[in-house]
Amino acid sequence: MSINKKDLIKRVAKRSELENKVVEQVIEATLEEIYNSLKQGESVSLRNFGSFYINKKSSGTVFKFNPSQRLRKLFGWASTYKSEM
Q1: What is residue 31's three-state secondary structure?
Q2: Is 2 exposed, middle or buried (0-12, 13-18, 19+ CB in 10 A)?
Q3: pLDDT digit string (tens) for 14-38?
């Protein structure tokens, strides 16, 4: 199962008690800022989620994602995260 952007917008709107249109604008703006940062060679770190970055190699450019300890713990990949899930 997966969710698309429309589903994500609905879920966030419900949780935050904001209108779908407002949440859609925030999500779109957030994604654009992430895209622009990566395009400029900047990494993007979202606490408790992970970091996105570009790794340039001789064979080309590679998009990377490094999950946070919280996300790693959720999938059993780390034992150092101490807070509640």
Answers
A1: helix
A2: exposed
A3: 999 999 999 999 999 999 999 999 9
Q: What's the start-to-end Cα distance of the chain, in Å? A: 21
Q: Strand pairing partners for 60?
A: 57
- Which CATH superfamily groups domain 5-74? IHF-like DNA-binding proteins (4.10.520.10)
User: What phi, psi does 20 have (nearest 5°)?
Assistant: -55, -45
Residue 38 CB contacts under 8 Å (≥ 6 apart), including other chains: 44, 52, 53, 54, 63
